[in-house]
Amino acid sequence: MPLAQCPVCEKSISKRAYACPGCGEPDPFNSKVKSKVFRSILWLVLIVGGVYAFWIYGLPLLIDFVHDI
Ligand SMILES: [Zn+2]
Fold first, then answer.
1. Which of 39, 59, 61, 69 has its C-alpha lying 20 to 30 A from 9's C-alpha?
2. Against a cut of 0.90, is the pTM above it?
């Protein structure tokens, strides 16, 4: 079982521990990485969704507007 230091209390705990048995820190080795990945995925979805919405709804309106001139 690989051991590592808890970032909060610096006690040697298993890297696969879901919570530190010393200080009770939940998910001491993965939580920061996971939230960062989750946030970048959320941004990606928002940007792609915005571009897609513009492409489907915004662009035909823009083309109609240009054709009317
Ligand atoms: Zn700890």
1. 39
2. no
Residue owning tokens 């079982």: 1
Neighbours of ion ligand 1 (CB under 5 A): 6, 8-9, 20, 22-23, 25
- On whether the CB atoms of residues 68 and 62 are closer than 8 A, the answer is no
How far away, in angstroms, is 46 Cα from ligand 1 center? 36
The full set of domain ranges for the chain reads 3-68
Measure 28 CA to ligand 1 centroid, in angstroms: 7
Q: What is the mean pLDDT of residues 20-29?
A: 89
- Joined together, the tokens standing for residue 67 give 């054709």
